[in-house]
């Protein structure tokens, strides 16, 4: 072709693949799927026990779902269509959930009346409280059991008369096991935590210890609190700083096209201003990865693959997801920077293919939008239940504050050029059931390849190309499905 045909030259294009275009090549294996270790890094300093994240979308992830994600070992990323104050409250709610040592302790004064403390405990939703003096020295503990007899004959008596003054305490370094043994030995349900001068610093409860034991695979920070993450706009330094002050572990720079020099400059500034890890996204090419890999703690990949995303149709731009992940991972692996594949995942097989292509974790939106914990409202259509699900590039989401994700500032409907739709997804029930099916399928994929860990799987896995006939063969075919499987639908 002549060199003076620049536009015809553009049509000599490379091939780009997505999930349905490939399959994992089965290999010799001794790995049983249930034994596959799913531990992975999502950013420089944050490790997850499951390589799964829920998307930062206002119909997917708020505190309730983020807490359950972290309890199961994954990570929920709070959306940013909320005020800074609401965001900080939700981060703190995540951090307080399952905490071993409660720091915001409800206390009583020895000079309060029994009636006052009873009403206070009812108002605060607690069944007992340490009794402390003005220096926070622990004098005793009072519970509903202590209070009940006094409500009949001495409700105006001082707390010092009703409290139990022989208090079993523990130090800051108490372990869940040690706390449980103290409670069992002394037949109590709460243990005040004190410093060397017997001043109250926290409280351990039986409920808190049992919650920690129930979620032994949870993703936790070095202090034992659940891991928290939040999305911020590419130019929202103040929001990122507020999230950092609230205790967030990972800040996601949330932009549809992060290979924008203004976005990159701002992301660098945010990284310099906060202690939390910073994940930059979204990108879809090797060149974009090279532009951010020197400062990013993680890179998020996905230009238009989501089920409610219309970016590729509206803008004519994008990159099929398997190729996008592979291009970014080729760069990131040289710098030991984790990669997150965001979008386009319909089945557990797609998720494990993304890992094989170089991702360290996957992010899903529609997969979790139908769960009980997702904030979308329930809709009934034709006798079936659905939950609201919308793209952050939809007009509704943009009106609620998400416009700058697509580098758009106008706030009138008629001014927006949306890159997403508002829709509904089938109601699915509890998040834990969906995660069980997703992770179980991913572990099966690791078993077929003979890999016991995520890093080993990334190294051992190989792809084969699939024809359109092969895609048809991969699905259930030539039958009428009578009993639907919990992890498969021919429509995705």
TrEMBL record:
Pathway: Purine metabolism; XMP biosynthesis via de novo pathway; XMP from IMP: step 1/1
SUPFAM superfamilies named in the record: CBS-domain pair, Inosine monophosphate dehydrogenase (IMPDH)
Catalytic reactions on record: IMP + NAD(+) + H2O = XMP + NADH + H(+)
An example Gene Ontology molecular-function term: metal ion binding
Cofactor needs: K(+)
Active site: 309, 405
Region (Disordered): 468-492
InterPro entries per the UniProt record, alphabetical: Aldolase_TIM (IPR013785), CBS_dom (IPR000644), CBS_dom_sf (IPR046342), IMP_DH (IPR005990), IMP_DH/GMP_Rdtase_CS (IPR015875), IMP_DH_GMPRt (IPR001093)
Superkingdom of source: Archaea
Residues that hold IMP according to the record: 307, 342-344, 365-366, 389-393, 419
Residue sites binding NAD(+) per the record: 254-256, 302-304
Keyword Oxidoreductase: yes
Record's keyword terms, sorted: CBS domain, GMP biosynthesis, Metal-binding, NAD, Oxidoreductase, Potassium, Purine biosynthesis, Repeat
CDD domains: CBS_pair_IMPDH (cd04601), IMPDH (cd00381)
Regulation of activity: Mycophenolic acid (MPA) is a non-competitive inhibitor that prevents formation of the closed enzyme conformation by binding to the same site as the amobile flap. In contrast, mizoribine monophosphate (MZP) is a competitive inhibitor that induces the closed conformation. MPA is a potent inhibitor of mammalian IMPDHs but a poor inhibitor of the bacterial enzymes. MZP is a more potent inhibitor of bacterial IMPDH.
Record domain CBS: where: 101-159, 163-222
Amino acids binding K(+): 304, 306, 309, 473-475
Pfam families registered for this protein in UniProt: CBS, IMPDH
EC number, UniProt record: 1.1.1.205
Subunit and partners: Homotetramer.
NCBIfam families assigned: IMP_dehydrog (TIGR01302)
Family the UniProt entry places it in: Belongs to the IMPDH/GMPR family.
Protein name (database record): Inosine-5'-monophosphate dehydrogenase
């Amino acid at each position: 072709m002549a060199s003076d045909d620049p536009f015809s030259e553009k049509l000599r294009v490379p091939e780009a693949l997505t999930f349905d275009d490939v399959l994992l090549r089965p290999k010799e294996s001794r790995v049983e799927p249930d034994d596959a270790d799913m531990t992975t890094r999502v950013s420089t300093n944050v490790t997850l026990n499951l390589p799964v994240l829920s998307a930062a979308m206002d119909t997917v992830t708020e505190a309730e779902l983020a807490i359950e994600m972290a309890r199961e070992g994954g990570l929920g990323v709070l959306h940013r269509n909320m005020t800074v104050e609401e965001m900080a409250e939700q981060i703190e709610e995540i951090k307080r959930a399952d905490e071993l040592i409660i720091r915001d302790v409800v206390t009583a004064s020895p000079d309060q009346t029994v009636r006052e403390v009873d009403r206070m405990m009812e108002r605060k939703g607690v069944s007992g409280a340490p009794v402390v003096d003005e220096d926070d020295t622990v004098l005793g503990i009072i519970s509903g059991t202590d209070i009940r007899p006094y409500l009949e004959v001495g409700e105006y008596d001082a707390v010092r008369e009703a409290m139990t003054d022989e208090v079993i305490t523990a130090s800051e370094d108490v372990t869940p096991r040690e706390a449980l043994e103290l409670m069992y030995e002394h037949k109590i349900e709460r243990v005040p935590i004190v410093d060397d001068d017997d001043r109250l610093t926290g409280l351990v409860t039986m409920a808190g210890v049992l919650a920690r034991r129930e979620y032994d695979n949870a993703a936790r920070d070095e202090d034992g609190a659940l891991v928290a993450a939040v999305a911020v706009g590419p130019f929202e330094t103040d929001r990122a700083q507020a999230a950092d002050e609230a205790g967030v572990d990972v800040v996601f720079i949330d932009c549809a096209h992060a290979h924008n020099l203004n976005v990159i400059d701002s992301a660098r500034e945010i990284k310099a201003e906060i202690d939390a890890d910073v994940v930059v996204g979204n990108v879809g090419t090797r060149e974009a990865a090279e532009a951010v890999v020197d400062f990013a703690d993680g890179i998020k990949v996905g230009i238009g693959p989501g089920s409610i995303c219309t970016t590729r149709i509206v803008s004519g731009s994008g990159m099929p997801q398997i190729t996008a992940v592979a291009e970014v991972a080729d760069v990131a692996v040289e710098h030991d920077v984790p990669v997150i594949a965001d979008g386009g995942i319909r089945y557990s097989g797609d998720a494990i293919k993304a890992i094989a292509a170089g991702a360290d974790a996957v992010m899903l939106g529609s997969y979790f939008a139908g769960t009980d914990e997702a904030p979308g409202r329930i809709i009934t259509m034709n006798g079936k239940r659905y939950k609201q699900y919308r793209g952050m590039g939809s007009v509704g989401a943009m009106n609620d504050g998400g416009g700058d994700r697509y580098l758009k500032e106008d706030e009138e409907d008629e001014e927006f050029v949306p890159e997403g739709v508002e829709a509904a997804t089938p109601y699915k029930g509890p998040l834990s059931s969906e995660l069980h099916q997703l992770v179980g399928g991913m572990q099966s994929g690791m078993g077929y390849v003979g890999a016991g860990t995520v890093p080993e799987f990334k190294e051992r896995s190989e792809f084969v190309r699939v024809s359109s006939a092969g895609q048809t063969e991969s699905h259930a075919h030539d039958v009428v499905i009578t009993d639907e499987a919990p992890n498969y639908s021919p429509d995705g």
